[in-house]
Amino acid sequence: MKVLVTGGAGYIGSTICSALRDSGHTPVILDSLVTGQEAFTKGHIFYRGDIADTAVIDRIFADHPDIRLTVHCAALIVVPESMERPYEYYKENVSKSVELFHALLRHKVEGIVFSSSASIYDVVADFKVSEDSPLNPQSPYARTKFMMEMVLKDFTAAYGLKAIALRYFNPIGADPKMRSGIHVREPSHVVGKLVDCARGKIPVFQLTGVGWPTRDGSGLRDYIHVWDLARAHVAAVENFAGVFAGQSADTRYEVINLGTGSGVTVRELVASFERVFGKTLNKTDAPPRPGDNAGSYASCEKAFKLLHWATEKTTDDGIRDALRWGECRKTILGYD
User: Fold this and answer.
1) pLDDT of amino acid 107
2) Which range marks the domain in which residue 68 is found?
3) pTM, whole model, 2 decimals?
4) How crowded is the C-beta side of 145, counted as CA atoms within 13 Å?
5) How is 167-198 classified by DSSP, letter by letter?
6) How many independent structural domains does the chain possess?
7) Fewer beta carbons within 10 angstroms: which end of the chain, N or C?
8) CA–CA distance, 294 with 238 (Å, rounded to integer)
9) Residue 158: phi, psi to the nearest 5?
10) pLDDT score of 133
11) Residue 100 forms beta bridges with which residues?
């Protein structure tokens, strides 16, 4: 199957493209390269352009009229940055996505698999959230994801489109074949910062937020290996029709959590990292970042039922692959 992947030159999007190709599908990448890396498009069909540029989208479908589904990953994703630059986040993540979806309707795309986020959930007493748990997005980034879910729900109801919103928890690691990984020079994700500390790029790891109502005071997260996340997108593509089979005819929109089903505190993650790395890191406690909360972990029963998918890799696997990527990324990207 041929699949359009927006943001396919980014960390997660590129891994999804590799997983699609490894499973016999053909990803077609659309990426502006504002944050993505051209090196990650090697071996794929690639169009450089903005998701709101109807001319480039028309050209893609003229060249590839057999595209049936779109995986929409393109977005700005840094929570603290979204607090400082809300205009850019609403413009890039919401306004441009609306234009993309309208263009996809013109080209009669059957469905959209949307990269949503667990950051839209409210904090619940036991931290475990299902797709029906209360929502309370607490940053402009999270609110853009919530808004796009509402846009998709309205589009599917009005236009006959079908869509699956995949709510990601916390991706870690890299493509196990080292084709791609975290590419930003100063990563905001916790494992990226741990790798930078381990490699001496930053002098100390700051554990941000230590007063949360968790078992050790640090935030609780559900760390999912990015390759498992990519596999879930392949499952969503391959089982797209099946997700809606047996449901009422007016069911055209589904939400599915993607996580491991286990909660890990940041302190526990740091301890695992030091064990895998084999050395103790220089670290310190720090206040929470703007937009942070105590956290959550996923109920994954729906993903297993509808996508026939479950995670295969462990937190240690994610740490090992992140460390491996840290050692080889200069060869691929040209910078350390």
Assistant:
1) 97
2) 2-175+223-261+298-312
3) 0.97
4) 29
5) EE-EEES--TTSS-----SS--SHHHHHHHHH
6) 1
7) C
8) 35
9) -90, -35
10) 98
11) none
Identify the burial level of 247 via C-beta atoms within 10 angstroms of its C-beta, where 0-12 means exposed, 13-18 middle and 19 or more buried. Answer: exposed
Q: What is the CATH number of the domain that holds 304?
A: 3.40.50.720
The one catalytic residue among 89, 90, 141, 297: 141
Mean pLDDT over 129-142 rounds to 97
> pLDDT of 82-125, one tens digit each?
999 999 999 999 999 999 999 999 999 999 999 999 999 999 99
Judged on CB neighbours under 10 Å (0-12, 13-18, 19+), 21 is middle
Average pLDDT over residues 230-243: 97
287 in a structural domain: no
pLDDT tens, residue by residue, 154-188:
999 999 899 999 999 999 999 999 999 999 988 98
Active site residue 47: no
Residue 335 falls inside a structural domain: no
Q: Give 295's DSSP letter.
A: B
- DSSP strands (E only) in the chain: 2-6, 26-31, 45-48, 69-72, 111-117, 128-129, 162-168, 170-172, 205-208, 220-221, 223-225, 253-258, 264-265, 283-286, 297-298
Residue 248 has pLDDT above 90, yes or no: no
Residue 292 lies in a domain: no
Tell me the C-alpha distance between 129 and 133, whole Å. 6
Give me 193's structure tokens: 């910062």
Let me know if residue 326 belongs to a domain.
no
Residues 286-310: tens digit of each pLDDT:
999 888 899 999 999 999 999 999 9
Rounded Cα gap, residues 36 and 76, in angstroms: 11
Query: Which amino acid is located at 299 in the chain?
Result: S
What pLDDT score does 9 carry?
98
Q: At CA 28, angle to CA 146 and CA 312, rounded to 5?
A: 65
DSSP H or E run through 244: helix 240-244
